[in-house]
Specification:
It is a single chain. Helix 4 packs antiparallel against helix 5 and helix 4 packs across helix 8. This protein has two domains: about 70 residues, Phosphorylase Kinase, domain 1; about 160 residues, Orthogonal Bundle (Transferase(Phosphotransferase), domain 1). It contains eight helices and nine strands. It has a five-stranded antiparallel β-sheet with strand order 1-2-3-5-4, covered by helices on one side. The protein has about 240 residues and is an alpha+beta fold.
């Protein structure tokens, strides 16, 4: 019997996986679908970490279970939205961090003979393909990028476009008279800090293939997301 047979406290619950405490040094990421192997996420996390991208170390992987180095800290989204306004992470600073995580990830190039991750046409950079404020942990020593299950090799602009579509769906889904400007400004700030995006239509299609794992309100905005991204990208000179 292993430690993973009886994980500890549930720390986080996502669309595809649950994260449990194992001890003060380790967490268990367990996919909801027991047939979902961790090989791709484990390989991408190792590749990224070995290349200097800030991400928790993989300690073990078996079947649907991935044991990772424990990183304590709130998500970037929580850091931006919880507590007193004066204590929150400023939006533009957060989006600059998000854009920098893209750049650091994209500097990792596919080594010759690498076969663990799929390769998309048009590039050989490491892509996260789910890089948004809920997949960044704000640790004491800096942001840590998590959840590499969609990782691939490909063109950096596609990864940027996927993040832009995620942020656009969020902005459109939860807009109200009070917070619509803030949500749109979040996307605008990201586009002003990020590498140029490309493959926007492909990014929408990519997210549409994963609609079952998206909140319904955000999924309903996929047809409108590209228009908002194009408008803001043109305005920011993308």
């Amino acid at each position: 019997m292993t430690t993973c047979d009886h994980p500890g406290v549930l720390l986080a619950s996502g669309a595809t996986a649950l994260v449990y405490e194992l001890d003060d040094r380790r967490v268990l990421r367990r996919y909801r679908d027991p047939a979902h192997a961790t090989g791709r996420a484990a390989a991408a996390t190792r590749i990224a970490g070995d290349a200097g991208v800030p991400t928790p170390r993989v300690l073990a992987a078996h079947g649907p279970d991935l044991v990772l180095e424990r990183v304590d800290g709130p998500t970037m989204l929580a850091e931006m939205t919880s507590g007193a306004v004066a204590e929150q992470l400023p939006m533009r600073e957060a989006m600059a961090m998000l854009a920098d995580l893209h750049r650091r990830t994209h500097r990792v190039r596919m080594p010759q003979g690498e076969r663990e991750l799929p390769r998309l046409p048009g590039g050989d950079s490491l892509l996260h393909l789910d890089l948004h404020p809920n997949n960044v942990l704000m640790a004491a020593d800096g942001p840590q990028l998590i959840d590499w299950e969609n990782a691939s090799w490909g063109p950096p602009g596609f990864d940027v476009a996927v993040t832009a579509v995620i942020l656009a769906c969020y902005a459109l889904a939860y807009r109200t008279e009070d917070d619509a400007v803030d949500a749109t400004d979040l996307l605008d700030a990201f586009l002003r800090s990020a590498e140029p995006l490309t493959h926007l239509s492909d990014a929408v299609d990519f997210r549409r293939e994963r609609v079952d794992f998206m909140p319904a309100a955000e999924a309903a905005q996929l047809d409108n997301a590209a228009g908002l991204v194009r408008y803001l990208a043109d305005r920011s000179g993308q």
